[in-house]
Amino acid sequence: MAISRRNLLAATAASLALPTFLRAQDDTTMRIRFLFADQNFTATLENAQPARELLSMLPLDLTITDYSTNEKIAYLPHKLAGDGATRFGNEAIGDLCYYAPWGNLAMFHAPYRWSRGLIRLGRLDGGPAPLLVRGEHPLRIETL
Hints:
Blueprint: H1 5-27, E1 30-36, E2 39-45, H2 49-57, E3 60-67, E4 71-75, E5 95-99, E6 104-108, E7 118-124, E8 137-143
Antiparallel strand pairs: 1-2, 1-8, 2-7, 3-4, 3-8, 4-6, 5-6, 5-7
C-alpha cells in the first residue's frame, strides 16, 4: 500500500502540531493554594465552569471545619454554577469538590461516594495529609 505525498505531509504536520497543543493545555492549568493551621498545600482545578468561578473569587478568607468522618468543608460567599446533577466517577481521597445545595467546598481525606449535588472541582496535589488536622480554623485560598 503506497502512502500518498499528501497523507505523508498531513501526518507530519499533525505530529508537529501535537506538542504545541499539549503545551497550550499545560499553560491553562489552574492551581490554587490553601493555608490553614500551619498547613500550606495546593490543588489543581479541572477545566470546568464551577472551578473557573471559584478561581475568579480568589483570594478568599473562609473558615474550614470537619464534617462527618471523611471531609473538611468551607462555605463560599456565594454559590457557584451547576447543580451537581451530573454523576462523576473515580471518586478518590484528595478530591476537592463543591456541594451545590449548601454552597460549600468539600475536601475529602477519606473514601467517599458521589451524591447528588456534588461537583468535583479538582484534586489536591500532595494528597490529603493536611486535612487530617482536626478542628475549625481560618482558611485562606489564593491563586498560584
